[in-house]
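Subject: Predicted fold for Ribosome maturation factor RimM, 176 residues

User T.R. writes:
Posting the sequence so we have a shared reference for the thread.
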Amino acid sequence: MTRLSPSAAKKKRVTIGKVGAAHGIHGEMRIIPLTDFTERFASMKEVMVGDELLHIESCKYHKQYVLMKFREYPIREDAMRLTGKLLTVDRSEAAPLAEGEYYTFDIIGLTVYDVKGKELGRVENVLRTGSNDVYQARRLDGGELLIPALKAVVKEINIAGGRMVIDMPEEISDAH
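User M.O. replies:
I've generated the structure tokens; pasting them so everyone works from the same file.
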């Protein structure tokens, strides 16, 4: 399974949320979680918001949001300037994954090969279908290849090597 945690522009940072609208009159901001690990917010002391390191004064959960107040922005009107900015943490602070789990941003960009070593294309997106993820790859000829994220199909994922090896039925992998 691929965990949703889109990356920031710099590969060394991991996006975990986005600042939404202000909440109330005391400078709290709604944070839209962009991570499968929402429990992480409660223990955080600081976070990068855009290009600024901010200290978390308070954090609580409200409906689908996380409400945060930042020490550097005690006034609602000032805090509203953060709306739309991304919250990121250093990649070393990314939540640990179980064996066989990968971050979406690690999968995107992998070169896809068949089991015989033939290059098929490059992963451009990860689609979340509910039952299993689907890796959307761009074929060398410009066509699209949809790869179900199943052990029966995906034989190897090598993040460090930048490659994914798949074994798909010919009628699927040869289709344009």
